């Protein structure tokens, strides 16, 4: 397993983490076996949005004796009513569901309390101007949650959450198709056929700004929908018209600024193993760039995707890192301290570019790298 720091929380989490929705309906014995397998593979980060009492109980039994070896991300405002999951903003129901979560997991705290599914700006205001955020802050003050998080599919709302300074972790949907779509309050539109009926150009700027803000401010992103509900793994169902592998999907998400981990909704040993394979995959196996470049309807032309095809640089510059740090700088005003320091410790800097153009010949997205290095050198002063 490869471990990363989850933003400013300081938590060290496996880059490949485990969503639990695929465990619904499993017997206690089989779920324990799945957790055993995941732990042996190095997984130490678990997301539990589900309010299903049987799933919560079985997961609590599976974690018995090893709770301290896992970072748990549990969701606030996810409740169980009339035999089914329900999202709520009712404080009384939220409190009862959280107490139920702790009791069934047999723990007195969770590392991340994730405010569940905030996609609409009106809902964001309801949460942050009302009782729910005050409840989350009280749980944090009491030590019953370590950090406050929020899950969203809408980059505008997710950015609003990151800008509050209250939210340390975002659970956000990231994959190359979603990244083409503009923000909206209807999550179903992200995968609707009509959304991909015409040519789409480059990453939506709201999504890019969100990732860069989170990187600058230390808001850790853990990713949901990395496979697009499985559609990206299918030639027939993928909007791209071709399948990606689990490793390619995961590498794409983990290459976005701010992203620390990917939550894989595994339903079996085999699916967990396919995801964890990212940790030992070769550069060729991780290479999502060749899979998404050159598509007629979808283009990322002129846009650095941090894919690394530009390497090796004849001057030894880590071009993808330089581009990333330059993109993390606002156009005006001072350079964020963390970005400046991270750039400073690079072995080679943009000013060392000899303008040979070899990198541009290798870039599958047609990025003007020589000019990008010139701009970076001017911004950072070296």
Could you provide a short overview of the structure?
With 382 residues, the protein is of the alpha/beta class. The protein has two domains: 283 residues, Alpha-Beta Barrel (TIM Barrel); 62 residues, no CATH class. Helix content is 36%, strand content 16%.
What shape does the CA trace take? globular
Label the structural class: alpha/beta
Average pLDDT taken over every residue: 95
- The percent range for strand residues is 15-25%
CATH architecture of the largest domain: Alpha-Beta Barrel
What helical percentage do the residues reach? 25-40%
What is the strand tally?
14
Helix-strand blueprint:
Elements: E1 3-5, E2 12-14, E3 16-19, H1 28-40, E4 45-48, H2 53-63, E5 71-76, E6 78-81, E7 84-87, H3 91-105, E8 110-115, H4 121-128, H5 131-141, E9 145-152, H6 155-163, E10 169-173, E11 200-201, H7 205-217, E12 220-224, H8 246-254, E13 259-264, H9 269-276, H10 283-286, H11 289-292, E14 298-299, H12 319-327, H13 337-344, H14 358-362, H15 369-380
What features would you describe in this structure?
The chain is globular, with a radius of gyration of 21 Å. The model has no long low-confidence stretch (mean pLDDT 95). The longest helix is centred in the first third of the chain and has 15 residues. The chain has two domains: 283 residues, TIM Barrel (Alpha-Beta Barrel); 62 residues, no CATH class. Helix 1 packs across helix 2. Helix 8 links the parallel strand 12 and strand 13. The protein contains 15 helices and 14 strands. The strands form four sheets. An eight-stranded parallel β-barrel has the order 3-4-5-8-9-10-12-13, surrounded by six helices. A two-stranded antiparallel ribbon has the order 1-2. With 382 residues, it is an alpha/beta fold. Helices cover 36% and strands 16% of the residues.
């Amino acid at each position: 397993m490869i471990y990363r720091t989850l933003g400013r929380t300081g938590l060290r989490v496996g880059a490949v983490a485990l969503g639990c929705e695929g465990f619904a309906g499993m017997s206690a014995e089989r779920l324990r076996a799945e957790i055993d397998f995941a732990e042996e593979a190095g997984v130490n980060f678990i997301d539990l949005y589900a309010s299903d009492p049987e799933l919560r109980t079985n997961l609590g039994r599976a974690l018995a004796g090893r709770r301290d070896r896992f970072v748990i991300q549990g969701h606030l405002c996810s409740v169980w009513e009339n035999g089914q999951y329900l999202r709520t903003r009712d404080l009384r129901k939220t409190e009862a569901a959280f107490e139920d979560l702790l009791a069934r997991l047999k723990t007195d705290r969770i590392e991340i309390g994730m405010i569940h599914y905030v996609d609409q700006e009106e809902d964001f205001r309801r949460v942050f101007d009302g009782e729910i955020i005050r409840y989350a802050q009280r749980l944090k003050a009491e030590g019953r949650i370590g950090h406050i998080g929020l899950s969203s599919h809408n980059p505008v709302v997710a950015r609003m959450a990151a800008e509050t300074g209250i939210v340390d972790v975002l659970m956000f949907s990231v994959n190359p198709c979603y990244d083409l779509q503009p923000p909206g309050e209807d999550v179903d539109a992200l995968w609707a056929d009509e959304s991909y009926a015409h040519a789409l150009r480059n990453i939506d700027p709201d999504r890019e700004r969100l990732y860069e803000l989170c990187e600058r401010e230390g808001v850790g992103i853990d990713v949901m929908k990395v496979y697009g509900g499985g559609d990206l793994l299918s030639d027939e169902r993928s909007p791209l018209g071709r399948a990606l592998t689990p490793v390619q999907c995961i590498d794409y998400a983990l290459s976005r600024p701010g992203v620390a981990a990917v939550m894989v909704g595994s339903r079996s040993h085999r699916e967990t193993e396919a995801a964890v394979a990212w940790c030992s995959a070769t550069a060729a196996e991780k290479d999502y760039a060749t899979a998404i470049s050159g598509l007629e309807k979808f283009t990322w032309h002129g846009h650095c995707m941090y894919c690394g095809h530009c390497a090796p640089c004849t001057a030894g510059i880590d071009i993808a890192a330089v581009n990333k740090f330059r993109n993390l700088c606002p156009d005006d005003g001072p350079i964020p301290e963390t970005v400046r320091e991270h750039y400073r410790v690079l072995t080679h800097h943009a000013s060392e570019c000899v303008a040979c153009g070899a990198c541009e010949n290798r870039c599958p997205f047609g990025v003007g790298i020589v000019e990008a290095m010139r701009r970076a050198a001017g911004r950072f002063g070296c």
